[in-house]
Write a structure and sequence with these properties.
Layout (H helix, E strand, L loop, with lengths): L2 H41 L5 H29 L28 H22 L6 H23 L5 H6 L7 H19 L6 E2 L2 E2 L7 H20 L2 E3 L6 E3 L7 H23 L2 H16 L7 H24 L8 H19 L14 H28 L7 H6 L1 H6 L16 H4 L16
Antiparallel strand pairs: 1-2, 3-4
Length: 450
């Protein structure tokens, strides 16, 4: 076998290794959605549990094809702003958007980005449980997951994105382009959607506890597991002697990501616990901590990452409680965890990593560039989130009617019960009524209507 033949085989196996790496990142990312499903089912009351779960399943099934037909093109067509450039190779009917034995990259990168998009829809899903129409939610999730976030991604992640080329924007773990965008989008929707019935009494927030806190905590831990696939998809596995780089071309490696991901998790949990002492906020702090350090995963000293994550976890709980007291019913604290921590994390890079040199003549990381990027991400999420949900509200298709909310979305939108064995058994026998336990009580009386 000649040297050229050996070199060809070596290069083929390198390309296959890249495919295998991202293949498993995509598989692990599905754990994020299993986690969101468990998290939101547990956080809902029993009368809304299946509706919350179905939203997450349908988010995946709706965003993925929408991203295939629209989103991948948006990412490649809009790096310069709102005027598209030629990106015909990313159109769904192009040769690159189908199986091709000579193309070992497009399919896996498309799939990874599609899963990022589905994650934004799942972030929105938790904020609006128990009162949004399923149809309205899916409209919002598709627009967010296949349009809004990837437009921000084109500006802040694409090699030619204007936030990168003009301001040196640095966001290797998608704190801004995914989490801040989705969190601020959710905030805009919550403002128009309104609070759940019974959430406020004389203007004061009332507790609506999860029906299954252990399920929610387990779901949050599953999201953390899925995050290792998510962050793996944010690093570039190169061929040749280049090695690992960030999405911006700066050299890095999985070890850097590993140090600061686990330290971010630990710091976020501790910060949230010290402030709240609440299991729900404490476990959410792990996610908030990772998001707080995600933008600078490749740059931070691990001890600094721990401290920054602890501050993010502590502030996250405060932000969530602040919004609740102001009448905004974000059911699972999605804005605090994703919107606030994502924004905060992007700005922190400008404080603690200012002056970091980018490659290929791109401006150095700066506080001004990071603050500009964070504001752009917030507005890119909030404006369409508020505007589209406002339009849906005006057409009276955003929220379920009060009587449906009182009965529970499972009975009306899903027509199923999550725990049927807990319901009285229907029977024609008179035994039930004679013993004082009616088996034919009206449905509304057998469901929590708070």
């Amino acid at each position: 076998m000649t040297t050229d033949e050996l070199q060809s085989i070596f290069e083929m196996h390198q390309a296959m290794n890249i495919e295998v790496f991202y293949w498993w990142c995509i598989a692990i990312m599905f754990m994020i959605h299993a986690g969101f499903l468990s998290y939101e089912i547990g956080a809902s009351r029993t009368k809304n549990a299946l509706a919350s779960g179905m939203k997450n399943i349908l988010t995946l099934a709706s965003v993925i094809p929408a991203f295939y037909f629209v989103g991948w093109w948006v990412y490649n067509a809009f790096p310069n702003g709102i005027i598209p450039i030629n990106a015909s190779a990313a159109l769904p009917w192009s040769a690159s958007m189908r199986p091709d034995v000579n193309d070992m990259g497009t399919g896996i990168f498309f799939a990874a980005f599609a899963l990022f998009g589905a994650t934004t829809g799942s972030i929105l899903s938790g904020a609006v449980i128990e009162r949004i129409r399923l149809s309205a939610f899916l409209i919002l999730a598709v627009i967010l997951g296949a349009g809004v976030w990837i437009l921000a991604g084109a500006w802040g992640w694409h090699p030619d994105g204007w936030l990168l080329t003009k301001f040196g924007y640095h966001d290797v773990g998608a704190a801004g382009v995914v989490h801040a965008v989705a969190g601020f989008f959710a905030l805009g929707v919550v403002m128009n959607l309104g609070a759940r019935i019974g959430k406020y009494k004389n203007g004061k927030p009332q507790a609506i506890p999860p029906h299954n806190m252990p399920m929610s905590l387990l779901g949050l831990m599953m999201i953390i597991v899925g995050f290792f696939g998510f962050l793996g998809g944010c690093i570039i596995f190169n061929t040749g002697d280049i090695g690992w780089t960030t999405i911006y071309g700066n050299q890095t490696n999985l070890s850097a990501f590993a140090f600061n991901t686990v330290m971010g998790f630990a710091g976020g949990v501790i910060g949230a616990y010290l402030v709240s002492r609440d299991p729900f906020w404490t476990m959410s702090g792990g996610l908030g901590g990772i998001i707080t350090v995600a933008a600078g995963l490749d740059l931070y000293y691990p001890g600094l990452a721990f401290a920054l994550a602890a501050s993010g976890g502590a502030l996250m709980a405060k932000v969530g409680n602040f919004l609740e007291k102001r009448g905004l019913d974000d059911s699972v604290g999605a804005f605090a965890v994703h919107g606030f921590c994502g924004f905060y994390g992007v700005v922190l890079v400008g404080i603690f990593a200012a002056g970091f040199a980018n490659v290929d003549g791109i401006p150095d990381v700066s506080f001004t560039g990071q603050l500009m990027g964070a504001i752009v991400m917030a507005l890119t999420g909030f404006i369409p989130g508020w505007g589209i949900s406002y339009a849906l509200k005006k057409f009276d298709i955003l929220r379920v009617p009060p009587h449906v909310e009182a009965l529970g979305l499972d009975l009306v939108e899903i027509s199923a019960r999550p725990y049927p064995e807990s319901e009285p058994v229907k029977s024609n026998s008179p035994i039930g009524t004679r013993s004082g336990f009616s088996t034919t009580a009206p449905m509304a009386k057998r469901h929590d209507i708070s």
